[in-house]
Known about the structure:
Layout: E1 2-8, E2 25-29, H1 35-41, E3 51-54, E4 57-59, E5 70-74, E6 97-100, H2 105-113, E7 117-119, H3 126-135, E8 139-142, H4 145-148, E9 156-158, H5 164-175, E10 194-197, H6 199-202, H7 208-213, E11 217-220, E12 226-227, H8 233-244
Parallel strand pairs: 1-5, 6-7, 6-8, 8-9
Antiparallel strand pairs: 1-2, 3-4, 3-5, 10-11, 11-12
Helix pairs in contact: 2-5
Amino acid sequence: MSQCSIRFYEELNDFLPPERRKVCFSHDFQRRASIKDMIEALGVPHTEIELILVNGQSVDFSHIVQDGDRISVYPLFESFDIQPLVRVRLRPLRTSRFVLDVHLGKLARYLRLLGFDTLYRNDCDDAELARLASAEQRILLTRDRDLLKRAMVTHGFFVRATDPRRQIEEVLDRLDLYRAIQPFLRCARCNGLLAAASKRQVWERLPPKTRLYVEAFWACGQCGQVYWEGSHLPHIRRFIDTLQARVGGETPFAGQIAGAGK
């Protein structure tokens, strides 16, 4: 029987039982195991990890754990430069393209509202989600930690919150995306890009009162959904302003798509 000592840092402790959180604990193992397999057997998806130190030296996921190893496992770093060390992923987790599991439909709408390229279908199984994440280099957002353990998923995040508004804040915080917000760039329904449209172009798709009182419209180039400045826009504006205020940003409404009508 071999034994190593291991400690997980910061939010990685969310995946551990209480007695193993924020402490160094011993772990017994019998067979030859990669550090990736060992970490995931303890409940932590590899997509949550940015840096692994073994006996003070950085290693990648292929490292074979040895008897007596001292292991430290860290999540994504936002404030420290760890460039000289070996990150466990081949490219940084900064690409703001997403694919979401079936439990995150409202979060998908929020991400699209903020301008992020977001794939979501309520009929996608785990295999298809993993394939899309890998093939299109998307960040997989999920409430299923086992889905993040699939080898082909290189970038992913386990969404802790259950309330959609808390979820969007959690994703923006974790991936440091507040400055990347571009409101009303995409269709909340299908993820297509929006473009300005004349009233004549969308006339047949408008309610009678909207035909009388609204002049500015935008349409989705993919599904044809029409948007305009509806009565709920101030509420949406306040929500986006609250998010962007975290980094001193300004919501670029003037001269841009400024509504998500109906």
